[in-house]
Amino acid sequence: MKGTADAQSVRASELASDPKNRAENVMIVDLLRNDLGRIAEVGSVTVPQLFEVKQHGQVLQMTSTVQAKSLSNIRIKDVLRAVFPCGSVTGAPKKRSMEIIQALEDQPRGWYCGALGWFDPNGDFAMSVPIRTLQMDQHPQAGSSAFILGVGAGITMDSDANTEYQECQLKAAFLTNLPSGVGIFETIRFNPGKDLSRIANWSRHLERLSSSAKALGIQFDYDALLDLVQAATTDLAQDCVHRVRVDLSATGQLSLSHSQIEMLHGPVRLFWAHAILQGDYTPQQLTMQSHNPLLRHKVTARTIYDAAWHKAVALGGFDALFINEHEHVTEGGRTSVFVREEPQGPWLTPPLSAGVLPGVMRLAILADPTMNAREANLTINQVMSANEIMLCNALRGMIPAHL
Predict the structure, then answer these.
(1) Which of 24, 77, 115, 279 is the one with CA 20 to 30 A from 298?
(2) What is the pLDDT of residues 296-336, one digit of tens each?
């Protein structure tokens, strides 16, 4: 398989007749004929299909078929040594190309471009070349495993760097263009008033929504959001405080909902999520993985967070705190947490690297020099023995709390 084009912009006949792609394809066909010739009966190596174009998803691939009849006493290891690594991913001449690859690439390819197959007891077997391959951690953990996607393009003297890069993007589109089903949202405080000035921390909400949309590949129409929010500023009662939720779906659709905010009276009670949810979730589910990238975004997939604060409310509290795999405290189901270990000491809050949401109110507190606040990893014991605990979110501001 050598020669690629976008099925949405190029016809199969155009790819089949393209001189550059034909030259690349026939070069590898010759290499594979030579490889098979080392283990085949004389005169049995043939090319029944040359420059055949097939569509795979969004990609057109120029494909040629090379076949041969093996020698009668050939062994498996002889086949593997002759054919792999496959010339379609090494290039030609094979030995020198592999030396160049070894010198230029700074890490092993793993399964990508290697050999993967099956063997039957009767001696039948089939081997494939894993390309466009998703490789997972050796020790996966639900919701936090790292994956490596292997894609590439064949480089020749006639190659253009930008074109080859675009080819890699095209080949990866089967995964990168999949709809995620995960949307993002902002929960915003509308104070009494008549215009956009009634929206608390509007610029910070806008920046986070825009940044998350870009990171997650979600289309974001700023003008449409502005129209939606401006309409809300005039439609909602102007003499009370409202909770306004703006949702941006995975497909880029905006929606808005609202309700009045009930006031809190006095310090609120706080729980540990792993204590109050232990019968509903496994310990693994209740342990946040600090390297999970979705924790940096306010995504709609947050069932366990909602379960935590709802359970806390049912128990007469307001929220419940989570911990990560290092047993560091992260955040509540709907709040960020700050602690002060000594009277008049600095306010400490878990860093983003612990696996926390960059909360709007959290950022405002950290940016306020009068608050004397900074980031620091916090243990359960530090929170339990703290002189003061403060929760915060964009709706309620700073909330005194106790365990």
Answers:
(1) 279
(2) 999 999 999 999 999 999 999 999 999 999 999 999 999 99
Round to whole Å and give the CA distance between 242 and 245.
10
Task: Supply 72's token pair.
Answer: 């009668």
What is the pairing mode between strands 287-288 and 329-332?
Answer: unpaired
- Which candidate, 114, 5, 98, places its Cα nearest to that of 51? 5
Give the number of other CB atoms < 10 A from CB of residue 273: 27
Separation CA 9–CA 381 (nearest Å):
60
3-state DSSP assignment of residue 260 = strand
Residue 141 has pLDDT above 70, yes or no: no
Q: Range(s) for CATH 3.20.10.10 in the chain?
A: 268-402
For residue 311, give every residue at least 6 positions away whose Cβ sits within 8 Å of its Cβ, in sequence order, or none.
271, 276, 277, 280, 320
The answer for 88, left when phi > 0, alpha when psi is -120 to 50, beta otherwise, is alpha
**What is d(CA 298, CA 72) in angstroms, rounded to the nearest whole number?**
63
3-state secondary structure 199-259: ECCHHHHHHHHHHHHHHHCCCCCHHHHHHHHHHHHHHCCCCCCEEEEEEECCCCCEEEEEE
86-118 tens-digit pLDDT: 988 888 888 999 999 999 999 888 888 889 999
For the chain, give every residue range classified as CATH 3.30.470.10.
Answer: 184-260
Residue 144: pLDDT over 60: no
Across-strand partners of 270? 319
Strands (E), 279-352: 287-288, 319-324, 329-332, 336-340, 347-349
In 57-111, at which residue ranges do the beta strands (DSSP E only) sit?
A: 59-67
Long-range contacts of 84-87 (CB under 8 A, 24+ apart): 84/114, 84/115, 84/127, 85/113, 85/114, 85/115, 86/32, 86/113, 86/115, 86/129, 87/28, 87/31, 87/32, 87/35
Instruction: Report residue 162: phi and psi, to 5°.
Output: -65, -40
Average the pLDDT over 348-363 and give the result. Answer: 97
Against a cut of 0.85, is the pTM above it? no
Compare 392 and 57 and report the one with higher pLDDT.
392
CB 40 within 8 A of CB 68: yes
Q: How far apart are CA 67 and CA 154, in angstroms?
A: 22
Domain 184-260 has CATH 3.30.470.10: yes
